[in-house]
Amino acid sequence: MKLFKYPWEWIRHNIANSIVLILILTTLIGWLLFVELNTDGIITGKVVDETGRPVPQARVLIREKTLNLIKPPLITETNEKGVFVYKDMRIIEFLINAQKDGYEAGEDIRYHLYFKGQHFALPKPLVLKKIQ
Amino acid sequence: MNRKLLFRLIDHTILITVSVLITIPLYWVLKTSLTGENLFNYPPSLIPKDPHIYYFVDVYYWIPFLRFFFNSVFVSLIVVIANLFFNSMAAFALRYSFPGKKLLILFYLSMMMIPFQTTIIPAFLITKYMGLLNSYLGLSFPLASTIINIFVFKAAFDSIPGSLFDAAVMDGMKEHAILFKIYLPLAKPAIATNIILTFVWSWNNFIWPLIIISNKEMQTLPLGLSTFLSYFENTSGQMYAFVIMVIAPIILVFFMNQRRFISGIISGAIKG
């Protein structure tokens, strides 16, 4: 097997392999950087009613889904702007819903994250319907 | 259209069809790992719908994937290094003429015909008496030297002119120096073949780790895959994602060395 004195000599002789290796390494380093920069464990979102107005003091329940069970809920409340924030969450899959007296119980919505501790803002607000 | 062109067209049509047929199961595994679509869905869809990588995330977090991966890589590295070392020395010894050489080669060839399953109990007992159960050395022990790879090296060494060996001896080189400084650098395809074959065998090895490993921390990827099967039904996306994660490194190693691998196998087939 040909021995190379310097790494760049090996790269010059194995262009295709080098490109593949560099791509893999770059992707890996990029991903690790992305994870490092987005790993504050914050899950945030908004609760609104049918008309789109924020619902303050709504209870938001998050239940972690694991391999074979759904854990007991973690509960928080929305502020006056209908926003809720969970901090230091180390989960990858969860069910979330919102509840408030005078409103119908919200349905569980399932979300999946890419890594534990991912900073995640719910793409859609949780909607509560008023009891007629 | 002349006759030659027609035959080439037929050849290529057959080759492309066979290639596609071989690739379909792999594509199906990849597709299921990205969509989780049930294998028995009818009608089956060729194009993945709403692909995502969440099944890979699940596998990464639900089992100690990195630990299994490290175990597999480490054991494969030990196996590859041991094979290069022992097989090249064995093949180099077969270069010499000595009484009983033909008998030894016959013995080697006959040993190839004995399936590993029949020797697994003595192999286990030996490993146990050596205190190598639940260890990396124990995992790599049965694959540390493989006869087929000795013959791959032998074929490569036989093609090196004897005058080169004589010249080295006359210059005062010792046997190990002749092997490592002259013969091995001239046997690149044989080295590549050894690396790939032993890496693949070690990576895919299931039955031996299953027998000697009782500690979960020491499990390799194929063993982890079988444990994983007990959690999921065989149509789940997680299982297929795990399969992809197990086979991806081996496919990468093959593609990066396929030119040398094929030339090594062919030279072994011609001269072995």
Short description:
By secondary structure, chain A is an alpha/beta fold. Helices cover 23% and strands 28% of the residues of chain A. The mean pLDDT of chain A is 88.
Question: What does it look like?
Answer:
- The complex is a heterodimer of chains A (132) and B (272).
- Chain A is an alpha/beta fold and 132 residues long.
- Chain A folds into two domains: 7-37, no CATH class; 43-128, Carboxypeptidase-like, regulatory domain (Immunoglobulin-like, Sandwich).
- Chain A is 23% helix and 28% strand.
- Chain A contains two helices and eight strands, in the order ααββββββββ.
- Chain A starts with 6 loop residues before the first helix and ends with a strand.
- The relative contact order of chain A is 0.21.
- The mean pLDDT of chain A is 88.
- Chain B has helices at 3-35, 54-62, 65-93, 101-112, 120-129, 136-140, 147-158, 162-170, 175-183, 188-204, 207-212, 221-231, 237-271.
- Chain B folds into two domains: 1-52, no CATH class; 53-271, Orthogonal Bundle (MetI-like fold), CATH 1.10.3720.10.
- Chain B is globular.
- With 272 residues, chain B is an all-alpha fold.
- Helix content of chain B is 72%, strand content 0%.
- In chain B, α1 packs antiparallel against α13.
- Classes of the chains: A alpha/beta (132), B mainly alpha (272).
Keywords:
heterodimer; A: 132 residues; alpha/beta; Immunoglobulin-like; four-stranded mixed sheet; 2 helices; elongated; B: 272 residues; mainly alpha; 72% helix; globular
Shape of chain B: globular
Architecture of the largest domain in chain B, CATH level 2?
Orthogonal Bundle
Q: Please count the beta strands of chain B (DSSP E, at least 2 residues each).
A: 0
CATH topology of the largest domain in chain A: Immunoglobulin-like
Quote the distance from N terminus to C terminus of chain A. Answer: 80 Å
The class by helix and strand makeup of chain A works out as alpha/beta
Give the ordered list of helices and strands of chain B.
HHHHHHHHHHHHH
Largest sheet of chain A: 4 strands, mixed
Major sheet of chain B, described briefly? none
